[in-house]
Amino acid sequence: MADVDAFYRRIKLRLVETGEWDRMKVTIGPKLNESGWLDDIKHKGVERASEMDQLSFQTLFEALSKAGHVGLPLPARRELQAMIREYLEKQFE
Q: Which GO terms describe its molecular function (predicted)?
């Protein structure tokens, strides 16, 4: 599993370094906003933060990450996966 995690980190770093990460965010962002996903995550964040006795960024981030992955609209998830797949195929040609 450590190899998979290391590979994931390298891919993400490469996406950021090449600007592909930002391009993907620009493409998917409006669709997430239109679907209400962004508002839902913001609402969950505010709700979760108000329930915490001592505000912890790490705890809040972990909770929102899980909620974000689970609630990601299927069309956006598929489009993002396709963009990542296309990027990886170009890298390994």
A: transcription coactivator activity
